[in-house]
Request: fold
Amino acid sequence: MDVKQYMQSVGQRARAASRDMARAKTAAKNAALLNIAAAIESDQAALLAANAKDLAQGRLDGLDAALLDRLELNPERIAGMAEGLRQIAALPDPVGEISDLNYRPSGIQVGKMRVPLGVIGIIYESRPNVTADAAGLCLKSGNAAILRGGSEAVHSNQAIAAAIHSGLAEAGLPIDAVQVVETTDRAAVGELITMPEFVDVIVPRGGKGLIERIARDARVPVIKHLHGVCHVFIDGDADLDKAVAIAFNAKTHRYGVCNAMETLLVDSEVASIVLPPLAQKYAEKGVELRGCPRTREILPEARVATEADWDEEYLAPILAIRVVDGLDQALEHLHRHSSGHTESIVTEDYSKARRFLAEVDSSSVMVNASTRFADGFEYGLGAEIGISTDKIHVRGPVGLEGLTSQKYIVLGDGQIRV
Amino acid sequence: MDVKQYMQSVGQRARAASRDMARAKTAAKNAALLNIAAAIESDQAALLAANAKDLAQGRLDGLDAALLDRLELNPERIAGMAEGLRQIAALPDPVGEISDLNYRPSGIQVGKMRVPLGVIGIIYESRPNVTADAAGLCLKSGNAAILRGGSEAVHSNQAIAAAIHSGLAEAGLPIDAVQVVETTDRAAVGELITMPEFVDVIVPRGGKGLIERIARDARVPVIKHLHGVCHVFIDGDADLDKAVAIAFNAKTHRYGVCNAMETLLVDSEVASIVLPPLAQKYAEKGVELRGCPRTREILPEARVATEADWDEEYLAPILAIRVVDGLDQALEHLHRHSSGHTESIVTEDYSKARRFLAEVDSSSVMVNASTRFADGFEYGLGAEIGISTDKIHVRGPVGLEGLTSQKYIVLGDGQIRV
Reply:
């Protein structure tokens, strides 16, 4: 297969389909989503058979247990995909929403209309359910999608693609609106990210290395989700019960997620009061603590934190702890070490809360809440395609709105410039 | 001079200054803008002397009259720069604006806070007043700016930079918040667009060739303004008086601007009625007409339009005219030839107006108004740094809001994920 020629053809078809999708009626898009959900459920046997092939090949290839787990489909996960699509169908259609429509002195009305981006390329790794989730979000937001999943999930993804295509066709929408790249040749990614004539934005989902490579080589805008070195700062004026609850939850609710706390900052005024009870709770959960010298004066059992620890995304039951002198030192630490994902302050002090909200330069900034809330569902977006740590276009959890843009509309009655 | 080392140092200082600018109070930013306006006026003699050097060198270098005109400063233009800065001071501060703050079922409040982008690199050509305009917009939106003007304006730009620095310092803001690149070495641009660690976004202002080169080589997001092949479509249900007025104004109000009409589409139902009076008005203005065969049946004096004419941004008293059969053919022409800048339909038909607004994929889509309204001042943005023909981040005229982003804020009372 000539990969370049194949991807050009995929791109051309996506571009053509994107025009139909941009003007597709809400009812047709919702019908397609519900059709796809039904097809995924009724095709369960075919999906499981295709997935069994991928799993067998994965075992032959020596994939580790975590990867095989992510690759696996089962009746519960298939039901989850269908349910996700039904939830997307229930969300309001963002396309065509008009805002800020006001009269100007010239007599024209000027406003903004929300419109699809066009063609969205999504590059992801082993989990096949991303195929359904991403297709659903792109479809509802009026975009065409080119999906490039992991090569280890190729049979599963093609089986899901078949369900998507039957659901689109049944609703009278072009099947090219969602294309799952058929080749596992890595060159396909290189083509996908360098076709600005056919692709409007790339959303990579995967490890930091993959995303950095894609961002470096892309000739198309990339919505990047790099990594989450998230912080909780327990201020000297914190309610200590809230502080313990939030710091414990932010670290231990789930370890392998980007919005888990990786470093705890504690004001020296309360460190000796709040750290011992927290350390006991962490010890019960088996969380390894790594502390600065002042932390280790209070918690001698903590390991020594090295400079590298302050920049580490552990994604594991490990926590770095630093004692700081007040808000300014905490802000300075964040400025140097935060990855710009999510930071939270625990405080009862109005002015410090207000400063923290204004001055911390992260996609989510919180007061008295666990960093684990940084999530599209918790924020009410309905679903998310990722969490952007970029500043341009969209920041934080990316839902339907992040897959759209706004154009200006002008309503006049014959006005001319004088 | 080691250009790479110099630009790295400019970048580092901009990044450091951007932190202070992000938390600068509205009053300090406004004071700086007013100080700079006053300094530009009181330094008028120095500005004119510096500009005289640039003009003398430009004449030696054989710059053409149009370029020399753009390069020239005079008391009126200096007053215009100062007035522009005062207008920016009078605009509301976009930074810190909180929107959509709502309670979620978990008890947290989730909203968005508008924040600066960080460091903005602006690359522009001969007109020295861009130095003051761009600095003012970046300053008010809480960003640090690195300005790289045309080498032919280097003395003028440095003189304006001196006024900017004195105005910033007097208001207690860091002078590194606005840096005008001192070297005329072209390698400086190459460095500026490949320092993502120091620069968050690039705004190039200039010809299509310059912008395409920058977009191709940049490792930083670029807010692109490519070109404006703008259209007016006179529908079969147009009010013909409005149609003549709008089509005449859109072409002849100013020729060398991106929102001028370059192609007129006319429904065959009204072509023979509306084209003759329009052609007479164009003839009085000396506008050259280039028509499709059906246009030339009605206007035999029109030249033959070639296929290339449909994609041409004339920026001159030339107009391409095509007769089409109804809205669908007009939309098809726009799909193939529009540059995505601004298109306007003239019609009294509700359904066709509604379809045109929804289906035309341009940064501004108008009904019964001249394309010349596509402008930051006319839209009420107060000022603009350019007009984006991109879909990502910002589309259409870019004012203060386009130089900002939104982060999520979460207000809780001790909430944890369960």
